[in-house]
Amino acid sequence: MQIHFAPIQGYTDSVFRNAHNKIFGASISKYYTPFIRLEKGSLRKHDKKEADTERNGEMIEKGLLVPQILPSNTEEADILVNELALIGYKEMDINLGCPFPMIAKHHKGCGLLPYPDEIANLLNVTERHKGIRFSIKMRLGLEYKYEWKELVETINNTPLEHVTIHPRTGRQQYRGETDLETYGEMLAAIKHPVVYNGDIVTPDDAHLIMSRYPHTSALMIGRGLLANPCLALEISTRSGIKHEEKKHKIEEFHEILLDGYQKTYDGGEAQILLKMKTLWEYLLPGIEKREKKRITKSKNLQEYIASVQAALMTL
Ligand SMILES: Cc1cc2nc3c(=O)[nH]c(=O)nc-3n(C[C@H](O)[C@H](O)[C@H](O)COP(=O)(O)O)c2cc1C
User: Fold this and answer.
1) Does 12 contact ligand 1 (Cβ within 6 A)?
2) Band of the pLDDT at 99, cuts 50, 70, 90?
3) Is there a contact between 37 and 70 (Cβ–Cβ < 8 Å)?
4) pTM of the model
5) pLDDT per residue as tens digits for the range 166-180
6) How many CB atoms lie within 10 A of CB 67?
């Protein structure tokens, strides 16, 4: 079963992706950058640095990394695609799912879903860049769960590698259940390979989706992998992974992450500490509250490392 690592703004940056790929890479067939957008007419500086070969060389070479773009129209898409193609990317994902109100109200992400004409115009970008493989990542709609129906014809007529579906509306953000029934309808209506995304946090969740919807071509997982970086490996090796091996891999992953942020960031200890603490908003939810609190309250890196070591001992 193919598993894609979802883009998560603020978490799956280049350091994170490289560390994950080093320890768990065999279990993931694609990583995506968090959405990349324009600022004053060209690629946002921070996004460019994060997508550049300097930080992603090996993953770009292996074709493992797909940059995700967040354009609101075909002209913006052109600029983004041209700049990313110059870096060396041959595959790109178009974000039609971001639910943040500040983005959606500017007709970006899921804010485009109620406007079939604007989507058709945007997806024309695929006609002008024949050397690039495109995919889209979308929700059911912005307000209503049937908005996708108006888009099927355009989607089916656009050359796409795959369509990733997160079966919620934009208004729902991440609340409420994913709508599997509507996912099934979309899977039947879309002629491209379809990737399922949403709320997979255990191997059982993954196997359930695949047995209910066997035509699903891959699974995309986000928060489940932030919580348990081993999850894709556990899904692909049905027998599971030995507890000690998992613990060892997570320790190694954490070490590489810390080292990576120390080498990449120049904002000093405070910036690295903040970055590392952020990870624990999702990482290892099973760890005792007391141990997590010690990690998030640590005042310097030395204290942080000691509290992480103590927490990992309780795993
Ligand atoms: C904090 C946060 C940031 C996200 N950033 C992005 C993003 O940059 N691009 C994108 O397509 N989706 C983004 N997502 C959505 C995820 O990729 C994914 O679709 C969503 O979390 C549902 O999948 P999951 O239940 O496996 O996490 C983000 C989600 C969260 C919670």
Assistant:
1) no
2) very high
3) yes
4) 0.97
5) 999 999 999 999 999
6) 26
Tokens 């209910």 map to which residue? Answer: 212
Ranges of each domain in the chain:
3-236, 243-313
Q: What is the mean pLDDT of the chain?
A: 96
- Cα 3 to Cα 106, 180, 186, 279: the distances in Å are 31, 18, 20, 21
Q: How far apart are the CA of 265 and the centre of ligand 1, in A?
A: 24
Instruction: Classify domain 3-236 by CATH architecture.
Output: Alpha-Beta Barrel (3.20)
6 alpha carbon to ligand 1 midpoint, in Å? 6
Distance 41 CA to ligand 1 centre (A): 25
Residue 50: is it exposed, middle or buried by C-beta count within 10 angstroms (0-12/13-18/19+)?
buried
pLDDT digits (tens, 9 = 90+) for 190-207: 999 999 999 999 999 999
C-alpha 46/C-alpha 132 separation (Å) is: 23
Q: Which atom of ligand 1 is found nearest the CA of 224? A: 26
